[in-house]
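Researcher: Let's do a round of design. I'm pasting the structure tokens now; please hold your answer until I've finished.
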């Protein structure tokens, strides 16, 4: 009975985050394909900027705003049947999947890599690759439901985040 009640509560409860996202302080990820860099905005500040690798061609890594729908530790690489955690696994140690192009978070993602020397380049089939230590950090601090903006422009992360309302000046935070 307890299992049934818990299952019903989970099914009927709203998923994180409630309301519009991002709200001031909510995590938000920005990937800029022009610079092959990723910024994490959290608690109304840019928490960090990390070098990444993106698509071999401009159209492979989709642009737009997406939602993190899947997170996995030591992800299994289905395409070539490589076990999670194996040194030859090209997905590295973490998978943060998002719903680009109508997918379910298992096709496009931010993930580690077994070829960290390629970070900074245009080498992927559409995903965003990071150094394993960086993706582990981001994995810990962002929940499912976090928005991911992928863009290609010559503006600062700060300006992009302010435009998206993911970052506002401290004095602009409304008093509650």
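Researcher: That's everything. Go ahead.
Model: Designed sequence:
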């Amino acid at each position: 009975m307890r299992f049934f009640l818990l299952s019903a509560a989970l099914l009927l409860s709203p998923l994180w985050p409630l309301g519009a996202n991002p709200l001031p302080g909510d995590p938000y990820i920005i990937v800029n394909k022009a610079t092959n860099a990723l910024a994490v905005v959290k608690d109304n500040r840019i928490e960090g900027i990390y070098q990444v690798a993106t698509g071999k061609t401009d159209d492979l890594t989709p642009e737009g705003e997406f939602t993190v729908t899947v997170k996995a530790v030591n992800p299994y690489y289905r395409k070539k049947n490589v076990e999670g955690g194996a040194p030859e696994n090209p997905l590295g140690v973490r998978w943060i999947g998002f719903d680009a192009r109508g997918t379910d978070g298992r096709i496009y993602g931010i993930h580690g890599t077994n070829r960290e020397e390629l970070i900074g380049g245009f080498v992927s089939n559409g995903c965003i690759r990071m150094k394993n230590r960086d993706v582990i950090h981001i994995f810990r601090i962002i929940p499912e439901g976090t928005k991911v903006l992928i863009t290609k422009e010559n503006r600062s992360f700060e300006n992009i985040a302010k435009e998206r309302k993911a970052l506002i000046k401290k004095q602009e935070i409304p008093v509650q």
